[in-house]
Amino acid sequence: MSEHSGWPALIGAMILVKNSIEELDPEHLQEYTLPKKKATEEEIQAAERQLGGRLPEEYRDFLLHANGWRAFYWTVDLFGTPELLG
Known about the structure:
By secondary structure, the protein is mainly alpha-helical. It is built from four helices and two strands, in the order H-H-H-E-E-H.
C-alpha cells in the first residue's frame, strides 16, 4: 500500500467493526482495543537499524498510521515498533 492507499480508511473501518462488536458483546468476551498512535519515521528507522534490515513497505506504511494494535482480533496483536524490539 502506498501513502495514499487507504490505511486511514481501513483502520477507521476496523474501529467501526470493533465498536459494533463491543455493542453486541455485553459480556466483553472480546477485549475492546484501539490502534496505537502512529510511529514516526525515526522510530521505524531505529527499529530497522536494530533488526538489521528494512521492513516491508506495506508494513512500514501501516506503522506510519498505527504503531501496532494489541488484541486486534481476539489474541492476535499487530506489532508496532516497541514489540518488534522486544
